[in-house]
Amino acid sequence: MNTEKVSLLEHSKEVQRGNPERSEYLNLPDIDFFLFCERQYRVNKGVYNTIDRWFYQNGIENIIHRRIYLLGFLEFVTESNLKQNHHKYIRFGNGGLITKLQEFMKESESDKYII
């Protein structure tokens, strides 16, 4: 698997064509998808699981759709954290992850950030 930084558009190019079952990244086994996210977005397993569970609990039950949202959220967070954060992993602070998830969903619904 290519370890270069890959944009969200490249992740979901097959999804956009209506072929999510052909997406190289979205159909990885769970551990490989997490390892991809860890390498590309510097997210630890606990944060990854919390994000995944939050999307599931907020109505995104289909795994392919949830992974698209997860990648979109990680892109969203990376854009703002890239300039500020030189840590090994993305950090949110107490309550910050849920706040960022809510902000992401609000922006994705307002066409500022489209998934």
Automatic annotation (TrEMBL):
Lineage top rank: taxon: Bacteria
Record-given protein name: LAGLIDADG homing endonuclease
Organism: Niallia oryzisoli
